[in-house]
């Protein structure tokens, strides 16, 4: 046996990964070909030492795969989901289809109008130099203003700019905007059987809350009537 050969085989029997990785590179066909087993197996690929190394590497790979975090959930199919803006008014959590949303803007001063006839119409707000009607969703939806449930301490009121097809853009103040979420269409349709007001298309369990998803067509028609 040539010098250094015994050291390599000793390493293999002790499951030394370094030896497993280097024996065929140092004394095998990719090395100086000094390994005596080459007389019997001709090529390292035929050697049981090489096969054992491959098995151990595969085992190690399998263990590493098991230790990896699970893959992320696949993105929802856009064709079977709807995009909904989730926001809070007083103690009610509401959802509105984003297709009627133009922008979420910071709160602006609302200037009252003289001789206004609609209780929902609060006045006008300046949106990029244009005066836009401002409506109270609390009044329009009939939400109890006394039942105010404060949100998180850092919640900031916002103004939603909506596109009303018959009256142009309108502004509605809200107490808090949580964000835009996608809900499965089947879930929204199933929630329609849960009841709600005439402006509610479905009611969903949303974490520990109850979320009323608004019927945007009914809402926007009511907006247009309030401005008439």
UniProtKB/TrEMBL annotation:
Annotated ranges, domain CheW-like: 81-225
Matches recorded under PROSITE patterns: CHEW
Highest taxon of source: Bacteria
Gene3D superfamilies, sorted: CheA-289, Domain 4 (2.40.50.180), SH3 Domains (2.30.30.40)
SUPFAM superfamilies found in the cross-reference section: CheW-like
SMART domains membership: CheW
InterPro entries registered for this protein in UniProt: CheW, CheW-like_dom_sf, CheW-lke_dom
Region forming the signal peptide: none
Subcellular localization(s) per the UniProt record: Cytoplasm
Swiss-Prot/TrEMBL keywords: Cytoplasm
Matches recorded under PANTHER family: CHEMOTAXIS PROTEIN CHEW, CHEMOTAXIS SENSOR HISTIDINE KINASE-RELATED
Name of the protein this chain belongs to: Chemotaxis protein CheW
The organism of origin for this protein: Pseudomonas typographi
């Amino acid at each position: 046996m040539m010098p250094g050969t015994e050291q390599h085989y000793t390493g293999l029997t002790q499951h030394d990964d370094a030896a497993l990785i280097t024996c065929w590179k140092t004394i095998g066909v990719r090395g100086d070909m000094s390994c005596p087993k080459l007389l019997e197996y001709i090529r390292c690929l035929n050697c049981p030492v090489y096969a054992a190394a491959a098995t151990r590497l595969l085992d190690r790979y399998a263990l590493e795969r098991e230790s990896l975090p699970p893959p992320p959930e696949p993105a929802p199919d856009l064709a079977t989901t709807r995009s909904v803006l989730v926001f809070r008014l007083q103690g009610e959590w509401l959802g509105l289809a984003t297709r009627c949303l133009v922008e979420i803007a910071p709160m602006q001063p609302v200037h009252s109008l003289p001789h206004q006839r609609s209780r929902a119409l609060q006045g006008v707000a300046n949106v990029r130099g244009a005066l836009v009607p401002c409506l109270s969703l609390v009044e329009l939806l009939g939400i109890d203003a006394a039942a105010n449930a404060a949100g998180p301490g850092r919640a900031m009121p916002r103004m939603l700019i909506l596109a009303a097809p018959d009256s142009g853009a309108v502004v509605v103040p809200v107490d808090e905007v949580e964000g835009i979420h996608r809900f499965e269409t089947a879930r929204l349709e199933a929630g329609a059987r849960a009841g709600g007001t005439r402006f509610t298309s479905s009611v969903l369990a949303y974490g520990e809350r109850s979320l009323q998803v608004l019927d945007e067509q009914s809402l926007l028609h009511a907006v247009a009537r309030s401005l008439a």
